[in-house]
């Protein structure tokens, strides 16, 4: 179904975000390249949606510290056939339209407008590479065609007390967007639902002529911030048929779990990872027809070792990555990525451990995110004394401790 729909479409995936609120996880990597769930990168979710929706032409616009992200695209996503006109291609800033880097989401696409025009596409799907969700874009494109839209904007309900962090939309009974405001101080609630507002998800389907015209005009505006939410959408609402597509209903071929998370802060990133450990996770990673694709390293199986008869260690509600080894240690509500070694009498609770980490014997970690290639010394305690933690590490608003890449090496 979806594959035929996208024969005349090209996708632009915005993946150049600096992710400053995710520091220090983004010190050496772009936000879409941050590991997630013990196995994936954040960008894998959007690319998997493209794959299963039938989108076969994807331009990934990179910018900030993109080396590891581009390696991941090469390792995990070199899957399409160029001979059939299929591709997932990383596009760094080329300064085709001037001598500046990307100055905003709209400017990033404007600087690559030649790629759109030469593609022969009639529609452009614009996505962000830094959200966690599953969605069949084919269902949205069907909606776009049905309502003869010039632009479709995916939206979802959010609690009114969280709405000021989003672009807030108002749509009428014909699904037309009649008002849009980017991150309003006093967001408008939904009709007859005063506890919720309708938020843009940053997912757009444009007719290509509409997009090219809007970007060209925006480029000539010296007062523009070159942002879709702030500059492009408010103007198009006044002059074009802009339609809202509400996420969470019938999502085509993907089971509608209605899960979408912006993991732009340490706390939201941590919470989204912990969601995977819920008794019934709100994000369904187990639909066999909609797997999340990623790069799989050549690792041995994970191993749990009980070297003593006194049952010193235990594992409760955990994700253990391949190649990891847990030796007489306790792991509670935590995610261990690949090639993690946890030594005797160590205790890890409510924590996320990235690849290639060694946890020393007797160490205790709680409410932590530990980046790659870290060696935690024996009997070190992290996450129990926030005042002491703040002297050594980054501490989030909610008290999550981030141990930076290379610590202890």
UniProtKB/TrEMBL annotation:
SUPFAM superfamilies: Nucleotide-diphospho-sugar transferases, Trimeric LpxA-like enzymes. Keywords: ATP-binding, Carbohydrate metabolism, Glycogen biosynthesis, Glycogen metabolism, Nucleotide-binding, Nucleotidyltransferase, Transferase. GO terms for molecular function: ATP binding; glucose-1-phosphate adenylyltransferase activity. The record marks 63, 101 as: Could play a key role in the communication between the regulatory and the substrate sites. InterPro entries: ADP-Glc_PPase, ADP_Glu_pyroP_CS, GlgC_bac, GlmU/GlgC-like_hexapep, NTP_transferase_dom, Nucleotide-diphossugar_trans, Trimer_LpxA-like_sf. Pathway: Glycan biosynthesis; glycogen biosynthesis. Residues 12-277 form the Nucleotidyl transferase domain. The keyword Translocase does not apply. Its EC number is 2.7.7.27. Gene3D superfamilies: Hexapeptide repeat proteins (2.160.10.10), Spore Coat Polysaccharide Biosynthesis Protein SpsA, Chain A (3.90.550.10). Belongs to the bacterial/plant glucose-1-phosphate adenylyltransferase family. Involved in the biosynthesis of ADP-glucose, a building block required for the elongation reactions to produce glycogen. Catalyzes the reaction between ATP and alpha-D-glucose 1-phosphate (G1P) to produce pyrophosphate and ADP-Glc. This is Glucose-1-phosphate adenylyltransferase. It comes from Cocleimonas flava.
């Amino acid at each position: 179904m979806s594959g035929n729909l996208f024969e005349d479409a090209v996708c632009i995936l915005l993946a150049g975000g600096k992710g400053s609120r995710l520091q220090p996880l983004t010190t050496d990597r772009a936000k879409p390249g941050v590991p997630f769930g013990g196995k994936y990168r954040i960008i894998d979710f959007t690319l998997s949606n493209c794959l299963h929706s039938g989108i076969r032409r994807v331009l990934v616009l990179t910018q900030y510290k993109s080396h590891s992200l581009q390696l991941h695209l090469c390792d995990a996503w070199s899957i399409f056939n160029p001979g059939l006109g299929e591709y997932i291609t990383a596009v760094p800033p080329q300064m085709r339209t001037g001598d500046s880097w990307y100055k905003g989401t709209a400017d990033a696409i404007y600087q690559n407008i030649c790629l759109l025009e030469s593609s022969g596409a009639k529609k452009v799907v614009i996505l962000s590479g830094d959200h966690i969700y599953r969605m069949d874009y084919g269902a949205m494109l069907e909606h776009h065609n049905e309502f003869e839209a010039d632009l479709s904007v995916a939206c979802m309900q959010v609690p009114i007390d969280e709405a000021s962090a989003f672009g807030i939309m108002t749509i009428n009974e014909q699904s037309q967007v009649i008002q849009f405001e980017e991150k309003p101080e006093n967001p408008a609630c939904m009709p007859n639902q005063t506890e919720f507002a309708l938020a843009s998800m940053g997912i757009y389907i444009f007719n290509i002529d509409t997009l090219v015209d809007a970007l060209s005009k925006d480029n000539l505006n010296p007062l523009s911030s070159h942002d879709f939410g702030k500059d492009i959408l408010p103007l198009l609402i006044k002059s074009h048929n802009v339609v809202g597509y509400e996420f969470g209903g019938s999502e085509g071929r993907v089971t509608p779990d209605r899960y979408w998370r912006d993991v732009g802060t340490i706390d939201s990133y941590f919470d989204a990872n912990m969601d995977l450990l819920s008794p019934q996770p709100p994000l369904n990673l187990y639909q066999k027809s909609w797997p999340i694709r990623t790069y799989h390293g050549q690792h041995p199986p994970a191993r749990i070792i009980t070297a003593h008869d006194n049952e010193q260690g235990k594992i409760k509600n955990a994700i253990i990555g391949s190649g990891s080894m847990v030796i007489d240690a306790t792991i509670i509500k935590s995610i261990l990525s690949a090639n993690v070694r946890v030594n005797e009498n160590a205790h890890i609770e409510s924590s996320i451990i990235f690849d290639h980490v060694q946890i020393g014997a007797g160490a205790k970690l709680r409410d932590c995110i530990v980046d790659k290639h870290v060696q935690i010394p024996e009997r070190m305690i992290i996450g129990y004394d926030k005042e002491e933690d703040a002297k050594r590490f980054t501490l989030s608003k909610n008290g999550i401790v981030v141990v930076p890449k290379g610590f202890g090496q």
